[in-house]
Amino acid sequence: MAMNLDEELNKEQAEAVRQTEGPVLILAGAGSGKTRTIVYRMSYLLSEMGVRPWNILALTFTNKAAREMRDRIGAMVPDAARDMWVSTFHSTCLKILFAHAEKLGYPKNFEIADTADQKSIMRDVYKKLSVDPKVFPEKKVMRVISSAKDELMGPDEFANAHQGDMSLLKIMEIYHAYQKALKANGSMDFDDLILNTVRLFKHFPDVLDHYQEKFRYIMVDEYQDTNTAQFELVRLLASKYRNLCVVGDDDQSIYRFRGANIYNILSFEDTYPDAKVIKLEQNYRSTGNILAAANEVIANNKERKKKVLRTDAEPGSLIRFRQLDTAGGEAVFIADDIRKKVEKGEFSFGDCAVLIRTNVQSKELEDAFRVRRIDYDVVKGLRFWDTKVIKDLTSYLLTVAGGANDMRTLRIINLPKRGIGAASVEKARVYAEENGMSFLEACGKADVIPGVSAKAKTGFLGFFEMVKGIREDMKDAKFSEILDRIIKDTGYNDYLMSEADTTDKYLEFIDYINKLKESLDSYEEDADEPDLVDFMRQNGLEGNNVDKTGEGESKDRVLVMTMHNAKGLEFPNVYVAGMEEGLFPGYASIGSEDPMAMEEERRLCYVAITRAKKSLTMSCARQRMTNGETRYAAASRFMKEIPTDLLDMNVHPKKTERTEHMEPTSRQIAKAAFNEKPQAFSAGFQKIKLGKDIGGTKPDYVEGDRVRHFKFGEGTVQKIVQGGRDYEVTVNFDNAGVRKMFAGFAKLKKV
What we know:
It contains 33 helices and 22 strands. By secondary structure, the chain is of the alpha/beta class.
């Protein structure tokens, strides 16, 4: 079909479509019609330029994006899409490797090792090398290996890059053995696909030449999210004909933690000095005020390509900013506001999205929605009550209370590990079934169950005695105190430390536990006859009730999601919750010496703001329970970066003696919200410590001192940095490598 670009596209989009030759960088701002431009450009190559479909390669990050692109091109140029390679980086590399894997010493029909396969191989490697998983947790080692592959470092390159780093010696050894085992099994893992394709191209120039001839026109979507391996793959393929078009937005680069390198897009013109740069700045999504706020926030970043989003839409309503006393109050405000807007007919529930910085924030929102019977979904994440930490601990609570079914007890029998194998668990389960008793009772009779190993018997009996002891000792204790005892007796806290990939992840686990304690205490205060089974039932933790609110099967639901998961989506009515210092931006970014850490947080704020089409509400809490302490927090610095003439500020003053008798001015309200000094105070009902205080006391050791950690042994302090909540200490342990941790948690002893 004939294409009338000047009528169907705006000026910049049409220019991007017509620029078919040489390197092209399309900087596509949020809501600027990026996908439409890509589809038109590829259709233009096919229908107007006469390029054959098999000479075009389009690379995406998700199968969904590839499918949508292929369908839309097919609608414009029928039959052509079938012969085009429109796929993800990994799918493209898989096709290439299936044709040439033998050149690298793999069988032609090699397999892709999934997560279970990787764990199995790694367990064998650990056994063979006598590696202690407590010192080198499998998850963390796999993360190091994955990152190395993203940087195009196989075992040899990794070893060369870290020569002399004694802390990584054992990981180098593990990496070598892991890759050797993969290859012996005729397998590659997911990260090998791009690494091995690049290796194939570099070692076999004839293979590279074949694909350079095949793919004379290359397009890459979301280029700001590419890592080193993806950058090199694209560079090699495009180096002959140089007809490379990359599309992306540096202001939406938010996946640094996954290996994305923003400098791939920022330095595109250095890599390709003759590149044509086209900016798509016309926004078709948001109102003028929303765009103005987004522009003002992102302008504070130094490492970016300058662009300013504009729109022909009306300015629209002001961005509402609300500061509430507590996180619970913030959630209630959001839930009530959504219902009010729906009842007025302004929006449907399905038009509304609540964006949060971390999954931990969802708990208060879920409670508020459930009480008000508002249907909701937590997108690409688990409900608070469905997270592993909460399911583990509620299973322990029910087992101790005597209200657990066997499924609950089976979940925790070997968690943390008690040396009980799957075969012994099955024998105990069958014994319980045949003798008409619960699985817990069977654990207490492990010494008479046939076929159970001596080690498993010790584990079963120890578990039974522990549960029995807690029952007897804690008959009159508060539920939260019983939970404390469970955590202490099981060593669950240390288990979480070994499971966490990072200090932040561990702190997130602790937040989950503290929120569970809050819920238990709140329930006990309100209930006439507190009962753990009733508590579980109220929170949807019993039976198979996975529906969030019980209002039927309606798809008209409010969506709750992290800001990362919201990227690429849009909603008429958006709430951004938790806009406070220490949460967004987080303490890790505030205390970081790397300025790019704060810039990434700011880009995430930009992404959150630009999800809104018509209405945007941003909110924060003066106080929030974090790691066992209730902390006061000032409003986020990102709120400060939005001009006040774009904000409808209704910040409710705290009910103190002073504010009850004085009506503050709007200027005073704004000043209070943005400048309130963070401080901490103990929770009124109980200060929760989990046996580990978090404090800002300066450590009694300095950089260069030798210290001892209860788990990692001895090491040398490399760096001490005062963060937002505590001192972050970097230690090079003799046997466990370099670790970063908060001093309050680490409890390091000077030696």
